[in-house]
């Protein structure tokens, strides 16, 4: 069975995006050492990405080459989009479909974002690992990392990495003994 891994950047006040979904706080963060914060290691461990519709739109608005061409992408959305190679859109039976993906053979699944999808998958107990890269920024407002409406869960700390930029990456796995 595949693991679903939430790998995500967050501000110190637990925001993953600006109120409009923008990521300028993240893309504009100084990174003179070109640190990838574990991104390449994560990409090597997955063959599938899952993201919400807002996250998908933000990536399209970044005016970059699609970053997940080596993976199969699933976008959870209320809207039908034009299908592309290695890309699927899930508009109904979201939890069931993701659960089926998780039960397939292959590498793990990266839950790219956003907050509502994260909350739904936490409630369905489908997230196995969380990797949060905390950036030394306080946004004050924006989209929360963990919106309400998910159930309580207990996580086991498995490690952390502090970077010269001030970013702290913290890794957890679900504590299945609780």
From TrEMBL:
A Pfam family of this chain: RibD_C
PANTHER family: 2,5-DIAMINO-6-RIBOSYLAMINO-4(3H)-PYRIMIDINONE 5'-PHOSPHATE REDUCTASE, DIHYDROFOLATE REDUCTASE FAMILY PROTEIN (AFU_ORTHOLOGUE AFUA_8G06820)
Boundaries of every Bacterial bifunctional deaminase-reductase C-terminal domain copy: 3-168
Originating species: Dysgonomonas termitidis
Record protein name field: Dihydrofolate reductase family protein
Domain of life: Bacteria
């Amino acid at each position: 069975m595949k693991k679903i891994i939430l790998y995500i950047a967050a501000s110190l006040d637990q925001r993953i995006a600006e109120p409009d979904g923008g990521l300028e706080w993240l893309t504009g963060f100084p990174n003179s050492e070109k640190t990838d914060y574990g991104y390449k290691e994560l990409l090597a461990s997955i063959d599938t990405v899952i993201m919400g519709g807002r996250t998908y739109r933000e990536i399209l608005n970044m005016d970059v080459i699609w970053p997940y061409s080596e993976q199969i992408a699933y976008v959870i959305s209320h809207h039908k989009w034009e299908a592309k190679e290695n890309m699927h859109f899930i508009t109904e039976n979201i939890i069931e479909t993701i659960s089926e993906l998780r039960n397939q053979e292959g590498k793990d699944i990266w839950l790219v974002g956003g907050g509502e999808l994260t909350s739904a998958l936490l409630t369905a107990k489908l997230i196995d690992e969380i990797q949060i890269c905390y950036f030394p920024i306080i946004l004050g407002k924006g989209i929360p990392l963990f919106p309400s409406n998910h159930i309580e869960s207990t996580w086991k700390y498995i490690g952390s990495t502090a970077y010269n930029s001030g970013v702290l990456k913290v890794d957890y796995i679900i504590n299945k003994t609780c």
